[in-house]
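Title: Prediction job returns without error message
Component: structure pipeline
Severity: low
Priority: P3
Assignee: unassigned

Description:
Job completed but the reporter wants confirmation the result is attached to the right record. Sequence as submitted:
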Amino acid sequence: MSSTNQPKEEANLKGTLIMVMIIGIVILVMWFGAYGLFLSR
């Protein structure tokens, strides 16, 4: 039973990790954009 559930869980974890990384990159881009605006003024 556990062997049939494992691939689904693994795919779910990979998807979650990818989403977290994308969100982190977006936040970093926003931070650097705001910092660039702050420096350019």
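Comment from assignee: result matches the submitted record. The mean pLDDT is 87.
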